[in-house]
Amino acid sequence: MRAATSNAEMRLRFAVWVWAVLTLGGAGAGSFEPPRVSSAPAGEGPDRASAERRSGGYPTKIVLIAGGPSHAPGEHEYRAGCLLMKKCLEEAQAVEVVLATNGWPVDVREFDRASAVVMFCDGGEGHPVLVGDRRRVLASLMSKGVGIGAIHFALAVPKEKAGRHFAEWIGGFYEDLYSCNPIWSPDYRVFPAHPITRGIKPFSVRDEWYMHLRLRATADGVVPVLVARPSDAVRAGPYQEPKGPFPHVLAARGQEEIMLWALERRGGGRAFGFTGGHFHVNWGDENFRRVVLNAILWVARVEVPLEGTQSVVTDADLRANLDHKEQGGWFRRGVKALRRAVQGRP
């Protein structure tokens, strides 16, 4: 396997590839189909977990729930992001990672034997957990001590419909008009002594880092993991939607914000919330990726290595499995995001 490409170079190559897709589209974009590291898509080839299943063993099972296509190309790439996590986890540990696409497993028996469920999907009124009896299904899993994690938009639920569930299960949630979603570059420098931070070095990644979430108090079990102090300019916005600024966010000037937290639930079960994950290219950053992989293993009660979860993601991996999205109203946003990525500015 060739050496991993630097994050800066991967960001540039990814941006150029997205530009080609946005500009040429249709058949013309076909010539820009990203190269594959192997003949199988990332995370879908033979792995250690499948070998264990063939031998009759039962490795720790993790269910990743990926949402359907959303946002502009390169943004909210739920399936591609989950396939990257699946690839990295199964290469690093003897675990079985099951991927459920379009927001929920086709058969709820996919949850059988699961040690953890991690959601990376759209939120708000379109959150998959709001459909039918899915909250009851998750409540049953939580009562059995199954771990749970939510990444980025999956943290956003209507307060009156699922706020109390997320506060109980995960430790908090993104509340509309209380929380905010600026694009900024937190400077993560100091980390607590926790399995999730193993192998993590100081880093800063530009993303849509949600902040001012509705969290349980640290005295109530929440452990801040990724913490940074946004500038006054970040607090003043604009945010992504709505643009803000919110008076209560401005009033918190000088205070730190929590962008990743961990929770050990009363009665058993672990949880984490991670507010980044908007830009798919950020999975190419070693520390960004490792802290999430560590968190997934931790909630699944798999021992996190002292050096952290080791993984390699190439630029080809980042370009694999992206959703085919309609350009339509997202086209202009995609072009603007591409220009910002190439120029290295918000």
Number of domains: 1
Strand order of the largest sheet: 2-1-3-4-11-10-9
Low-confidence segments: 1-5, 19-56, 328-332, 341-346
Helix content: 25-40%
CATH topological fold name: Rossmann fold
User: pLDDT average, as an integer?
Assistant: 84
Largest sheet: 7 strands, mixed
- CATH homologous superfamily grouping: Class I glutamine amidotransferase (GATase) domain
CATH hierarchy class name: Alpha Beta
Give the overall shape. globular
CATH architecture assignment name: 3-Layer(aba) Sandwich
Query: How many H/I helical runs?
Result: 10
Walk me through this protein's architecture.
With 346 residues, this protein is of the alpha/beta class. The chain has a single domain (39-325), classed as Rossmann fold (3-Layer(aba) Sandwich). Helix content is 29%, strand content 15%. The chain has a 7-stranded mixed sheet. Strand 10 and strand 11 form a beta hairpin. Helix 1 (7-24) runs antiparallel to helix 10 (331-343). The longest helix has 18 residues, at 7-24. It is globular, with a radius of gyration of 19 Å. The protein starts with 6 loop residues before the first helix and ends with a helix.
Descriptive labels:
346 residues, alpha/beta, seven-stranded mixed beta sheet, two-stranded antiparallel sheet
Task: Please write out the topology.
Blueprint: H1 7-24, H2 48-54, E1 60-66, H3 78-92, E2 95-100, E3 114-120, H4 134-143, E4 147-151, H5 159-169, E5 172-173, E6 183-184, E7 207-208, E8 214-215, E9 222-228, H6 232-236, H7 247-250, E10 257-264, E11 270-274, H8 286-299, H9 315-319, H10 331-343
Parallel strand pairs: 1-2, 1-3, 3-4, 4-11
Antiparallel strand pairs: 5-8, 6-7, 9-10, 10-11
Helix pairs in contact: 1-10
